[in-house]
Amino acid sequence: NAKNGRDVSLLVKKGGVQMFKVTWSTEKVNNANEFKFILHDKLEVNPESILFKNIISQYKFLTPFNTRSGEFEFYVNKVDKNVVLNKFYAKGVVMKDGNKALELLMTTNEQPYKFELFAPALLGNVKPGMTEAKISVAHNPGQSLEMKTNFQKFTGFKIYKTGSGNERKVEVNGKELVMGDYTLTDNSFSTKLTVGADYLEPKITWEGKLPQNKAEAEAFMLKNNIVVKVTGSKRNLDLSLNWKMTKPDFNFGTPENGKISLNAKGHNPRWGDYSLSRDATWKVENKVIEVHWTGLAKFAQGRLATATPIETAFNFKILLDKADLIGKFMKKVNGKEYSIDFPEGSGVMPKIVMGQ
C-alpha cells in the first residue's frame, strides 16, 4: 500500500450470509534514524457462525465479542540509546463491540520508562477488581534508580546515592531497607551493608587486575584464586575458590585437563558453625572424559546437621565412542553410604547401595 505496508482481507460466507470477515492493514517506516511498524486489524463475527459458537463464546478468561478491532505500534529509535539498548516503545489498543478491552504502553523513549496495561478480563483473574497495572522506572545513571507501581502490596523501590562517597540507600515501599558503601580496585571489591542495627561486610579478592580485553579475560577465567571474607553482626564466612584449566576447544579427542578447589567455613543463624570443601579434577583425551570429585560438609544445626561430616565422592569415566558410563557416585551421611556404581559395559545393571 502507499504506507509501505500491506492490506489483507478475508471474507467467509455461508448460504450468502457473512460468517466472519477479517481485515489487516500495516504501515512501515525503516530508515537510518528509526524503525516503525503499525498494524490495524478488524474481525467481524456472526454469532451464528461456528467460529463464534465453538470458540469465541467459550472464552473463559477473555470476553466474547461480535466485532473486535485493534491497533498496534512498535517503534525503535536507531540513533538514541538508554545506557545499552536503543530507545523504543510498543503500544496498542483493542476494542470489542465498541468498548475498550485492552490497552498497552511499554516505552523507554521517555522518562520515566513506563509499562501500563489496561486489561480487566485478564487482571481480574490475578486480583479481583483489578483493571490496570502501572509501572514506571526513573533511571539517572550513576545516581538513582526508582520504580513506582500501582500495586497494593508492592508500591515500588528506590536506590540512590546519599552523597557520601559511594554510599547508597535502598528503600522498598517507602521504607529504608538497606544502606551500603563499596570500594572497587583492580583486584578487590569490598562493601558494607547496614540494615537497622545489623551489618554485613564482605570483601572479595582475586589474582591479577580486572580484565580489560578478551585476552585478559581468557587468562582470568583459565586460572585464578578468589578469596571471600565476610564479617557481620549475625554471620561470617571465609571462602577460597581456586582453579586452573587448559583452554577448552570442545574437541573431545584432544587433551584437556583442569582442577578446581573450594573451601569454606563460617557461621550463620540457619546452619550455626559450618564447613564445606570440594575438590575436582578432570581430563579429556581420546574421547574419554574422566572426573574425580570429592568433598566434605559439616553443619552444626538445621536440616543438614549430622553427627559426622557428610562425605561426597564421584569418580567416573565417560567413553564417548562406546556411549558407556563407568564409575561410582557416593554420598555418606552419618556413616551410612548411599551410592550407585556403574560397571563397564553399557548393558550392565548398576549396583545401588541405600544406607548401608
Amino- and carboxy-terminal Cα gap: 77 Å
- Number of DSSP strands? 23
Report the average pLDDT across residues. Answer: 91
Number of contiguous helices: 3
Low-confidence stretches: none
Bulk shape:
extended
Radius of gyration: 31 Å
* Secondary-structure element series: EEEHEEEEHEEEEEEEHEEEEEEEEE
- Helix/strand structural class: mainly beta
Strand content: over 45%
Query: Largest beta sheet, briefly?
Result: 23 strands, antiparallel
Tell me the helix content: under 10%
How would you explain this protein's 3D organization?
It contains 3 helices and 23 strands. The chain has a 23-stranded antiparallel beta sheet. The chain is 6% helix and 62% strand. The longest helix is centred in the middle third of the chain and has 9 residues, at 214-222. It has 356 residues and is mainly beta. The model has no long low-confidence stretch (mean pLDDT 91).
Short description:
The protein is mainly beta and 356 residues long. The chain has helices at residues 50-54, 120-126, 214-222; strands spanning 7-14, 17-30, 34-45, 67-82, 85-96, 99-107, 113-118, 132-140, 144-149, 156-161, 168-172, 175-184, 188-195, 198-205, 223-232, 236-245, 256-268, 272-285, 288-299, 310-319, 324-333, 336-342, 351-354.
List the helices and strands and how they pair.
Layout: E1 7-14, E2 17-30, E3 34-45, H1 50-54, E4 67-82, E5 85-96, E6 99-107, E7 113-118, H2 120-126, E8 132-140, E9 144-149, E10 156-161, E11 168-172, E12 175-184, E13 188-195, E14 198-205, H3 214-222, E15 223-232, E16 236-245, E17 256-268, E18 272-285, E19 288-299, E20 310-319, E21 324-333, E22 336-342, E23 351-354
Antiparallel strand pairs: 1-2, 2-3, 3-4, 4-5, 5-6, 6-7, 7-8, 8-9, 9-10, 10-11, 11-12, 12-13, 13-14, 14-15, 15-16, 16-17, 17-18, 18-19, 19-20, 20-21, 21-22, 22-23
